[in-house]
Request: fold
Amino acid sequence: MEQTVIERWGVLELSLPGKTEGNPFTDYTILGRFEGRHEDVMVSGFYDGGGIWKIRFMPSWPGEYRYTVFGSFSDRETSGAFRVREASGRNHGPVRTAGQFHFAYADGTPFYPMGTTCYVWTQQPDERIEETLRSLKEARFNKIRFCILPKHYDYNLGEPRTYPFEGAPMDSSVLTKDNFWNYDGKSEGNRFDLTRLNPSHFQHLEKCILSLQSLGIEADLIVMHPYDRWGFSCMPREADNLYWNYVIARFSAFRNVWWSLANEYDLLKDKTAEDWEHYAQLLLQNDPYGHLRSIHNCVPFYDHTRPWITHCSIQRQELYRGAELTNEWREQFGKPVVLDEIAYEGDIQHGWGNITGEELIRRFWEGAVRGGYPGHGETFLNKEGILWWSHGGKLRGESWKRIGFLLDVLRDVPGHGLKYLPAEWDSVCGIPEDTELARKTGYRLYYYSFMRPSFREFHQNDDTLYRAEIIDTWNMTITDAGVHRGRFRVELPARPYMAVRLIRA
Amino acid sequence: MEQTVIERWGVLELSLPGKTEGNPFTDYTILGRFEGRHEDVMVSGFYDGGGIWKIRFMPSWPGEYRYTVFGSFSDRETSGAFRVREASGRNHGPVRTAGQFHFAYADGTPFYPMGTTCYVWTQQPDERIEETLRSLKEARFNKIRFCILPKHYDYNLGEPRTYPFEGAPMDSSVLTKDNFWNYDGKSEGNRFDLTRLNPSHFQHLEKCILSLQSLGIEADLIVMHPYDRWGFSCMPREADNLYWNYVIARFSAFRNVWWSLANEYDLLKDKTAEDWEHYAQLLLQNDPYGHLRSIHNCVPFYDHTRPWITHCSIQRQELYRGAELTNEWREQFGKPVVLDEIAYEGDIQHGWGNITGEELIRRFWEGAVRGGYPGHGETFLNKEGILWWSHGGKLRGESWKRIGFLLDVLRDVPGHGLKYLPAEWDSVCGIPEDTELARKTGYRLYYYSFMRPSFREFHQNDDTLYRAEIIDTWNMTITDAGVHRGRFRVELPARPYMAVRLIRA
Reply:
């Protein structure tokens, strides 16, 4: 018999027939123990419908592994062995925090999040899903935030392709763009059985997660959110537990998964801090791989200092400043800052979705130079009613074209990641996170934002030679500005959105 | 003998020969008492050089007046009478605060400050002064901030045409754009006699103040400032008193004078709060007309709640927000807010002088819709080294062309002045300052700033008819958007810098 071989951080999936009498989602257990030289991990499996039970495991080490699957789902244990070989290609493992403020894959490769948001792209027709994946790849996004549950909101009044539970929804033909605000999770007419999940909903999500993985894109899964007319945002604790544990059992073994406990947690009026802490406990207990965990606000931040939170997932709290506060948030919370909402490029009526591409890219640089990781989104009105922010599809704006350029600039920073250097009042200065590297390389990234100096003068010290480069963050050019010593002047084109990069020559 | 007739708020000036032995600036007094039916005013005169003493009076009422001039400057008293007729033309009297947050001329005509800054325009050659006046008129500015004393600063290394005191300056040929920072009021080589003023310096300033007056422009006189290499920013108390009293005696009778105690008071390191309070006392005692009084900051605000301060003269304290805080400053200080520095349109290296015209006009609207009065400035590099901000001359930017349009919109507000209405989070709403007028007219001015909605929905109430107009604040158009009732929608062009104005139809 040929031995099963998978990659480190790949997935070993076992499909086993099992019992289906009664309610397989609530009446049985399925557990697996996976033992290798460096780890001994217990995970739960799940019922996948059609009489099939599944269990998944992501090995964190290469080498020989053995497993045993057991539980009330079956009268017999299943055991076996497999081999894990080293990762290859773009498989660098799951993303972890690195140092205090940055991210790296498990193999140590730095990861600089350049994310976007398409809340329910997975609920669209197949052709649009394919289009979304092509768009993500072209834009070089490496993270995407999206929901597991369907979304009820402005521009999102249709039905999803599937529901997470068995049952049928309320009649949505009554909805109009003016009355949909009157419907919420407590609306009448929904007939979902909150004790029976719908495996096909999750099977499809998995396919999407794996498509992202093959493109090297992290799936920032939003497990709960308030924009609901079906009742999934205000389920009783038992249904929440069933849903959370099912999600964790199904998705944890995918290396590109991040957990976002909620989008705008504070708008889930039925949920309290105790609920969020409870969900966090479920993750801590049942996700053995320790995927990244965050929780995203509408107005008040969750207490991002809570130990289970790996990084801040921030929606800005002010109309005029957002990314500009990145360094303050880093100090306040002492964790990586991911700016998951700093307004989207677009032209809809809502102020969170109608800034220019220039303004969004300005915010990207404001955040990035301060050592944070801004996020993208697009909300352009169109006849088809397909808005990237929710549905994915085509990218229509100008900002997405400039994401990869910033990513390349960040990759060129000595060491791993930037931090804010309080320096001149009228520029933003980023230096390498590693103080010693900052000193040794002399690397400085000065960003001038909306200002448009026609020159700037520099004087780091009298002795060191510095190479100066002019970065046009909008036109995506990097121009050599010579090697200098002492006090020197760099001529600039008197346009906004310029930066100057200095490095020891 | 023909009776002297002047206009209300005009100037009666008496020129009298007098003593000159010793030091006429310090050794003599000259006082005048001016009596009319409604007022009885005592003012000081001043020595104007060439053996001539002058005394000026601005009558606040029409009718018959008598005067007596006396003091040690002469061995005999001079008496006389004159008649004051009503004001005519654009003479509406001096500007006062009106209500709590706005301004009006003494005759009650509302005054909406639309100011600019040219610190030392009066110290330039005559042709440039003429050019400045033409530019001010074309741009429809109605207030200009400028200094009485010469200025030493980046782009301001030359000598002024005159000095306020007799004497000679340090050798300025040693100055370069890189070393000028090393020179300040305590630099060596200045030989000024701080007991002897130079009347021609002030005569020329008066000519400039009167030229402004004839154009209907208020002269916001900056009496002290820190950018000095001649010693005028750090004079002893006796010299300060001499200078202040001379300034007050010469300029108070000009109706278009405002007193700005200082530009960036906090950078005058030799001066304490006690000094500023002392200068304020001199104004309170010796300016009988009660011209507007303010004091302008670099970083910390002066305590604008001080009773002698008539309005806040504000330099923004943050890089990213300024005019956006107007409503907070109104609440904090309870006085009119004049935003005398919110960065200038230009392209110099300094962050306070290199924003775009679009950004400056955006700041104007942010401040104006909140019931404040933003100020303009221009700092464009050019071969001639003539920067509007200091030297006046030609206006080169884009923002000045759009000042008059905003002024017209403010004049169209029912009643007098706007105030901020906390309403939607993603627009700025201004309503008439008078709450009853706001209610009766239904007037609302919504400003969308950098956002670019392609439509906005409105719903004031179900019964009232509203006329909607679309204001393009950049392209300066006002477009009728129909009459509506109940919930309605206004289509917008999905460009930044748009506003919507509603008024009861």
